[in-house]
Amino acid sequence: MLSELRIRNFALIDRLSVRLGPGLNVLTGETGAGKSIIVGALGLLLGERASADVVRHGEDRASVEGVFDVAGRDDIARMLDERGFEAEEGTLVLKREVVAEGRSRAWVNGSPTTVSVLGELGRLLVDLHGQHEHQTLLRRDEQRAILDAYAANGDAAERMRAAHAAVGGLERELESLETRRREAMQRADYLRFQAEEIEKANLRPGEEDELEDEARRLTHSEELTSLSGGLYEALIGADQALVGELGGIRRALDSLVRIDPSQGELQELYDNAYYALQELGDRMERYGAGIEHDPARLDEIRRRQDLLFRLRSKYGGTLEEIVEIGRRARAELDLVDGAGFEAAALQKRLDAAREARAAAAAELGARREKAVKKLSREVTGVLPELGMAGGVFAAVTVPLPAPTAHGAEDVEFRVALNKGFEPKPLSYVASGGEMSRIMLALKTILARLDSVPTLIFDEVDAGIGGRVGLQVGDKMREVAASHQVFAITHLPQIASRAHLHLLVAKRERGGKTTTEITALESAGRVHEIARMLGGDPESAVSLEHARELLERGVGV
After folding, report:
1. Residue 382 in contact with residue 444, Cβ under 8 Å?
2. 502-518, pLDDT tens digit by residue?
3. How far apart are CA 323 and CA 327, in angstroms?
4. Which site from 38, 333, 473, 524 is most exposed, i.e. has the minimal number of CB atoms within 10 Å?
5. Any idea where the domains of the chain sit in the sequence?
6. CA dihedral of 131, 137, 141, 147, whole degrees rounded to 10
7. Cα 80 → chain centroid
8. Average pLDDT over residues 171-180
9. What share of residues in the chain are helix, strand, coil (percent, to 5)?
10. What is the pLDDT of residues 44-78, one digit of tens each?
């Protein structure tokens, strides 16, 4: 539950800290005192969009902090653990800050987080019903969500969403295949020419460099023959060749070593040089003998180089990229030939997915049909307690032309507020006050199933009063038996039912107006209830009436 709310520099609020308790907590005060500001601060804490307008004039930032008791909430603990946070001894502190420039930051137990994470946690902790929220009850999607929550259809609804998504995915896949096949058919002649031209060329990576090297050798074959032959003759081929002349050097070196054996390693140097020159001469002889003088081969290479140049000019990129272009062209052609088989396989999977979706829709629809009857009875049974004695509530399912992610039917709430009339959609027959009471009736029933510990009602009592106000107050107190309820109200009948009564009021401090909250005790409650009754809050009659309300509600 929400145990403490701290607000700083938010709109009219300078600094405010309010402690809440279990059961029914009510907030009252004069019109314009700042009750809606507190609800706005709560909304900001729970992840609503931030605006620089909320920062109090003259300040650089506003902050809202909520302290929650989450002891025993394993779902909260798991969520915190997944995101690297911990609930310290069952306490969770959420904080949101907005700077004057409009930027926003968020924290969980002092650690920075995102606003989306703050919102996820907030939805598990607080259910906020604003004074205009009953308008959302007119929407079919909201009505469907309420019914599914009532019927515990979460798993069945998720199976429906998954089945519908599977059908949609296969439909898109089949459509894409058909689109690609049509495009390939339109380009088939060009693709066939492209694939055959590239495949016929039989391109090899690195081929261009190899051809260039071979062409250079053939072009300069005579020069290479002359150079290699000259080197051979100079080294070992002629009578006066260099290797033959080295014999005299060896004899002189041997004589030197006989005199000075310490220079014996010089003979190894000589041998290495001698054999290296001998090997060089042999290689030049073999190289020269292997040089080709082949003008026909050179012409062939030039034609091949011209082909490669034309392909690169036509398709661009490297030879590897041209080969890939040919591969893709062949794949598109294969698509034309094989699309029929692939489409048949996809269609078979799509038919199976549609059958699975139909089964999921039938399961969800059956659960809804059962639930609408039960919910209709329960809400109708609550309406007299909220001042609508002749009211009849009916939840009905409306078949859809085709299944959606939400099922094969819509859900519509209808009501008849007078005997003898057929229930009609809420928007046709219900006023704002009546819509508020219908919302409260639904929340009364859903509260038994709702795991969110804190319910906040912002003036959902609008448009009602008198005996109906007493009934609404009793119903709120009933809901507060299983949930913490925080209600902003203008009705003394509701305020008198509170376990904790908080008064919001404007004060002037330092030349600035600020909003403050005070927890009222016995005498203070009597005085505030008397004010809310509309008479003179100091008169004995008003005070006595206030005491009677409190005695009927909770006792003073």
Report:
1. yes
2. 998 888 777 777 788 88
3. 6
4. 524
5. 155-367, 520-556
6. 120
7. 18
8. 86
9. 60, 20, 20
10. 888 888 888 888 888 889 999 999 988 888 888 88
Predicted confidence band of residue 441 (pLDDT cuts 50, 70, 90): confident
| Cα–Cα distance for residue pair 415/422, rounded to 1 Å | 8
Q: For residue 339, what pLDDT is reported?
A: 60
pTM: 0.60
Token duo for residue 206: 């690195």
> Strands 407-416 and 392-404: what pairing?
antiparallel
* 556 pLDDT tier (thresholds 50, 70, 90): very low
Task: Write down the mean pLDDT value for the chain.
Answer: 86
The single-letter DSSP state of residue 22 is S
Residue 262 CB coordination number (10 Å): 7
Q: What is the DSSP string of 449-512?
A: T----EEEEESTTTT--HHHHHHHHHHHHHHTTTSEEEEE---HHHHTT-SEEEEEEEEEETTE
Using the structure block, give the residue that is written with the tokens 């003979």: 267
The Cα 282–Cα 288 span in angstroms is 10
Per DSSP (E only), the strands in 376-441 are 392-404, 407-416, 424-425
Name the β-bridge partners of 454.
126, 484
The residue assigned the tokens 């729970």 is: 46
